[in-house]
Design goal:
This protein is of the alpha+beta class and 287 residues long. The chain has eight helices and nine strands. 22% of the residues are buried.
Length: 287
């Protein structure tokens, strides 16, 4: 038996007492190495019953394998953690959207309904008619906002007709809702794996939300070019722009979220913005 710096356990002749209590009653020899992540042991890897007994070469090979296995396990854990965090952030974002748009619109509908009731009871028909007109506009706006949020929760056209069609639909909805002029230009369109299209759609959605909410833009243009190996994506607006360094340090405008989504698809994200000169969000990804 040999134990060296707690890196492995090698036993080529097991005592009968150990065999009697082991689940494998035919156990003759065993080599155990830990699965380590930094200074933490997250598991063990064991091999049993090599006919000629285990050697130092076996220890070296199994340690290498254990190192790779530990890295893979830790990466999977971190990936799952990142996905859970992304889901939580998405829920929080949608909750904010729901509060800022639909809830506020419904509150306004209630106020106009009460004002209309008072106007009617006072015989002020002109005011009642004006209030009803505003109430109708508010209700329509709430419906548009709700449809947009439902679409964001599960964009059904993404799986059916692909990224380009989904983004075109999203841009049309934004134009109808906000009055911002939108345009989309595509070269070499083709379908991509659904997981890749989903991340690109979410990234584009984040950039579009920034353009609508923060940029005060009059126009947003999306350009996509597919070639044999890459997709080139650019969303540009003519809004007020922002200080990129200040926004990056504060974590605002969803920049961290966009970077994380780009990282998940091994994409290269660049953002260009200058106060008063609009913003361009670009992504290049291997396809």
């Amino acid at each position: 038996m040999a134990v060296e710096q707690q890196t492995y356990l090698l036993v080529n002749t097991l005592p009968d007492q150990i065999q009697a209590y082991h689940r494998n009653r035919d156990l003759e020899s065993i080599l155990v190495v830990p699965l380590r992540v930094k200074d933490t042991i997250i598991g063990v890897l064991d091999v049993v019953n090599k006919s000629e007994g285990f050697s130092k070469d076996d220890v070296r090979i199994l340690n290498l394998f254990a190192t790779q296995a530990a890295i893979a396990i830790e990466n999977a854990r971190l990936r799952e953690q990142a996905e859970q965090l992304a889901v939580l952030e998405e829920r929080q974002r949608l909750a904010r959207e729901l509060h800022d748009s639909v809830t506020q619109a419904l509150y306004s509908v209630n106020l106009y309904a009460n004002a209309t009731e008072l106007a009617l009871s006072s015989g002020k028909m002109d005011i009642a008619i004006e209030n009803l007109h505003e109430l109708n506009n508010m209700a329509r706006e709430a419906m548009l906002d709700m449809r947009t949020l439902i679409f964001e929760l599960h964009p059904p056209v993404l799986e059916k007709v692909g990224l380009v069609a989904a983004l075109r639909t999203r841009l049309e909805a934004v134009e109808a809702r906000s009055g911002i002029q939108t345009g989309i230009h595509v070269e070499g369109e083709r379908r991509l794996p659904l997981s890749l299209e989903t991340e690109l759609y979410r990234l584009a959605q984040e950039a579009l939300t920034n353009a609508v909410k923060h940029s005060k833009a009059n126009e947003v243009t999306l350009r996509m070019r597919f070639d044999e190996q890459r997709l080139y994506f650019e969303m540009r607006d003519d809004g007020i722009g922002f200080d990129l360094m200040a926004a990056s340090q504060s974590g605002g405008l969803g920049l961290q979220s966009m970077q994380e989504r780009a990282n998940q698809i091994d994409g290269e994200l660049t953002i260009e913005s200058t106060p008063g000169e609009g913003t361009a969000v670009r992504v290049v990804v291997e396809v």
